[in-house]
Amino acid sequence: MHTSLSPTLSPLGESTLAGIKEQTLSPNRLIVIVGSGLAGYTLLKEIRKRDAAVPVTLVTADDGAFYSKPNLSNALAAGKTAAALASASAEKMATEQNATVLTHTRVTAIDTQRQRITTGQGEIAYGKLVLALGADPIPHGLAGSGAVDVLAVNDLADYAAFRGAIDGKKRITVLGGGLIGCEFANDLVHAGFAVDVVHLGDWPLERLLPIEAGQRLADSLAMLGVRWHFGRSGKSVEAAANGYRVVLDNGEAIEADVVLSAIGLRPRTQLAQTAGIPVGRGIQADRLLQTGTANVYAIGDCVEIEGLNLPYVQPLMAQARALAATLTGAPTPVAYPAMPVMVKTPAHPVAALPPKAGAAGGWNVECGDTGVCALHTDGSGRLQGFVLTGSETGRRNALVREIAA
Ligand SMILES: Cc1cc2nc3c(=O)[nH]c(=O)nc-3n(C[C@H](O)[C@H](O)[C@H](O)COP(=O)(O)OP(=O)(O)OC[C@H]3O[C@@H](n4cnc5c(N)ncnc54)[C@H](O)[C@@H]3O)c2cc1C
To answer: Alpha-carbon distance 127 to 114, whole Å?
Structure first.
């Protein structure tokens, strides 16, 4: 465990530092945040903007280093190590934010009646509990002797392992041509690797982008050397004398040194579910981020608010601001601004703001030499969503303003 302060544990209870005595004495005031990703730390910072003194303990299974997860998929070409991506240690965060940060401490159970969480170090009593647990990579389900070696990159430790695995290697197969798969493909090819991408859809990001935009992205990456395998899925990965043999559903085989799975993430719900906290795709919460259980809240990739799980940075920022207000005495429902998804593919960047599900109207797609502009309007010509690629992404802010108006 690596902390700036000793843990405030109950019934162990003994704290060696005066700074956390108040937390031990008034557990009903204690806010416990589980998770040190962007959601957990952003919430902590937002709480501190409003209240310098309310006791907060942040418990995390990892080392608690602060980093921006979106950087994981565009750090290779920039030559960044995992250590370089971490902008502050857990100790620094604890000191700066006047909080207790318990690292390498996994929460294994929540007793919602007694308002206590169980960790490997003991129990912690909470007044308010916030689950900021993130999401897990979806298991790839591949067969074969090399399947256990397939990597996924979802945190700093994964990124360090991935960098270690590709060191001195050349051929990388990426499974999945969604946002994360495309970003890694661009980064890897830019860093000099030979990249194959296996994707079930007929073009990348097919649920977000119309075909014209998706094809333009695919073509731009192909021009850099990415080899696409559309309409295909991986079946097995066999360890071979010199790397791996990735066999696809049509029998085609790709030789690879490293296989990276980027087929998607799913919210971490098991801890909540076991505790009887209602879950659907994510941990279910209302607009106050309150779960179906008293004094338990959820935020970030793990939460589903009114049926919507939005695993991106902008939503979690809005959630953190609203929840910090609620937890410090001003109940505030979360409200989202227009939030375009940005795909970090320098070969051909993409900005997409999909229209609301079931929106009437249709797409008007214009393809220029250097980019695609697709606008979704309703019957009266009002803009409801857009997809911009390449040079057209420069229009993003103006279109966001138009939609907001
Ligand atoms: C490669 C990649 C690129 C991305 N690019 C973008 C982008 O360009 N733009 C964008 O908007 N979004 C992007 N995203 C998504 C964005 O990064 C996430 O939405 C965001 O980082 C999620 O933060 P989080 O705090 O909810 O989860 P996480 O960062 O996953 O944090 C979860 C935390 O919970 C802890 N934890 C989990 N279970 C327990 C437990 N039982 N006990 C204790 N601690 C526990 C973990 O250790 C971790 O500290 C990207 C994601 C990835 C993977």
So the answer is: 10
CA 88 / ligand 1 centre spacing (Å): 16
Provide the angle, in degrees to the nearest 10, between the axes of the packed helices 313-327 and 38-50: 40
DSSP string, 137-157: EPP---BSTTGGG-B---SHH
Domain boundaries, the chain: 18-136+266-327, 139-263, 349-404
- pLDDT reported for residue 77: 87
What residues form DSSP beta bridges with 362? 377
Residues having CB within 6 Å of any atom of ligand 1? 34-40, 59-62, 69-70, 72-73, 106-107, 132-135, 153-154, 180, 268, 271, 300-301, 311-314, 316, 342, 344
3-state secondary structure 207-227: CCCCHHHHHHHHHHHHHHCCE
- Look up the CATH number of domain 349-404: 3.30.390.120
Residue 2, pLDDT above cutoff 50: no
For the segment 167-214, what is each residue's pLDDT rounded down to a tens digit? Answer: 999 999 999 999 999 999 999 999 999 999 999 999 999 999 999 999
Q: Is the pLDDT of residue 71 over 80?
A: yes
- 18-136+266-327 matches 349-404 in fold: no
pLDDT tens digits for range 351-362: 999 998 888 888
Q: What is the DSSP string of 244-292?
A: EEEEETTS-EEEESEEEE-S-EEE--HHHHHTT--BSSSEEE-TT-BBS
Cα–ligand 1 centroid distance for 312 (angstroms): 9
d(CA 98, CA 25): 17
pTM: 0.93
| Confidence bin at 23 (pLDDT 50/70/90) | very low
Q: Are 3 and 65 in contact (CB under 8 A)?
A: no
Ligand 1 closest atom vs CA 108: 41
Instruction: List the CATH code of the domain at 18-136+266-327.
Output: 3.50.50.60
* 37 C-alpha to ligand 1 centroid (Å): 5
Tell me the β-bridge partners of 266: 136
The superfamily CATH assigns to domain 139-263 is: FAD/NAD(P)-binding domain (3.50.50.60)
